[in-house]
Amino acid sequence: MQLDPFRLGELTVDPRRNRVQWPNGDQARITAQVMHVLCALADCNGQLLSRKELIERVWDGNHLVGDKGIATAIWALRRALRESKDAPRYIQTIPRKGFRCLAPKHPLPPQEPASTQLQADREHGILHRAFQRSDGGPRARPTKLIALAALGLAFASAGAWW
């Protein structure tokens, strides 16, 4: 399974994060298994994917999965994609044969390297603002908070001991 994000119709699919995102920013998280099913269907470019082929690709040929396992994965996928079996936009069931992905798959343009984005954020002061309180003062350091919590725990333990 390819892990690079891609477009599926109007959706953005991110296999690494098991996430599907709509153009308005809404997101749905799905299980890794359901993401494998979605990717297998999308990789077929509108061609029929039989139940047997789906088991081979997603469940490594474990035919014990059977029709119930496939139906459960397809149901979860349809639920995440907000579609019904009667009015499919993404996944079409071909009775007694298999499934077809109706939406075209397109690769996303390559992402800007993280180090370049980090440098751009530094230049715009984004990282500096992230470490300030809303009143402009510096935020408390986590080590101080941890030390205070440990000190409080020590006093509570000492009080229980005496």
Task: Describe this protein's structure.
Mean pLDDT is 80; it is low at 126-134. 43% of the residues lie in helices and 16% in strands. The chain has helices at 32-43, 51-58, 66-80, 114-123, 126-130, 142-161, and strands at 6-8, 11-14, 19-21, 27-29, 49-50, 91-94, 98-101, 105-107. α1 crosses α3. The chain has two domains: 6-107, Arc Repressor Mutant, subunit A (Orthogonal Bundle); 114-161, no CATH class. It is an alpha+beta fold and 162 residues long.
Question: Which features characterize this protein?
Answer:
162 residues; alpha+beta; 2 domains; five-stranded antiparallel sheet; three-stranded antiparallel sheet; Sig_transdc_resp-reg_C-effctor; DNA binding
Name given to the CATH architecture of the largest domain: Orthogonal Bundle
Strands in their spatial order, largest beta sheet: 4-3-2-1-8
Provide the succession of SSEs. EEEEHEHHEEEHHH
As a percent range, the share of strand residues is: 15-25%
Number of domains: 2
Q: CATH homologous superfamily of the largest domain - what is it?
A: Winged helix-like DNA-binding domain superfamily/Winged helix DNA-binding domain
End-to-end separation in angstroms reads 60 Å
Q: What value does the Rg take, in angstroms?
A: 24 Å
> What structural class should be given to the helix and strand makeup?
alpha+beta
Question: In terms of per-residue confidence, which ranges show pLDDT below 50 for 5 or more consecutive residues?
Answer: 126-134
Number of strands: 8
Give the overall average pLDDT.
80
Total number of helices: 6
Major sheet characteristics = 5 strands, antiparallel
* CATH topology annotation of the largest domain: Arc Repressor Mutant, subunit A
How helix-rich are the residues, as a percent range? 40-55%
* The CATH class of the largest domain: Mainly Alpha
Rough outline: elongated
Protein name: Winged helix-turn-helix domain-containing protein
Organism: Pseudomarimonas arenosa
GO molecular function: DNA binding
Keywords: DNA-binding
